[in-house]
Amino acid sequence: MMRRTTLTLCLALCTTSLLAQETPQSTRESVSTAAVTPEYTDPFAALEIDPYASQYQFERSSLRALNVQDPIEGFNRRIYRFNGQFDELVYLPVIRTYEWATPQFVRKGVSNVFSNLADVPNLGNSILQGKVQRSMRTTARLLFNTTLGVVGLFDVAKTMGLPQESEDFGQTLGVYGVPPGPYLVLPFLGPSSLRDATGRAVDWSLEDAAAYLNNRQIMNNNPWSYGLYAIDLRYKNGFRYGALDSPFEYDQVRYLYKKLREFQISQ
Hints:
Blueprint (H helix, E strand, L loop, with lengths): L1 H35 L20 H7 L9 H29 L2 H25 L3 H16 L8 H4 L9 H7 L7 E4 L3 E4 H17 L4 H7 L2 H12 L13 H18 L1
Antiparallel strand pairs: 1-2
Helix pairs in contact: 3-10, 4-5, 4-8, 4-10, 7-8, 7-11
């Protein structure tokens, strides 16, 4: 009986001693953890939202964090809506008629011809950016498609492992550090920026100056070819207004365009 009492007393003393040693350490750990864990802060807490302002107030407040430079947003939105209505009422019906009236191989040939002509500014901008290997590949594309591909009617270079590598003067300016400037929505053409709109005009001038295959004179003598060019431009573009099914489509397109251009310039 005495042995059991002694054993129980020893166990009680040991347990008390262990608890006395562990309690301060666990307390220190909880205090240390509380000191390291940062306090949660709402990243949008500093944004000021006027509940009585226009319907775009929340969008503008939220997108300040994205640093999208759009000083003429109201005007751009009106052009965006115009482009969407024109696309729905005019452009897409013409495209559907074009698809109905022409077989697929004809549409493919038309696209290939215009893509071959587009490789002229692609080559010029690759050279300006100092992309030697890309310039060589684009030169090879022009030679193969113009000769073996019958003035670009067939994209034989792509089957040979030389896909088109698009470059424009807007990208060239970006490579040399020119900022994009304010965001723009161009009538009929869609998202752009001050830098990219200027670059587009330079690319057209470059294509005119090169007069590759005498294409500009041929198109001037056949004005209908400009209409075919516009149809092919939209035919190859898979974007559809309203496809994002979001009330913030304008903002999403604006942001995605900005990120796309940054990615293209970095390549």
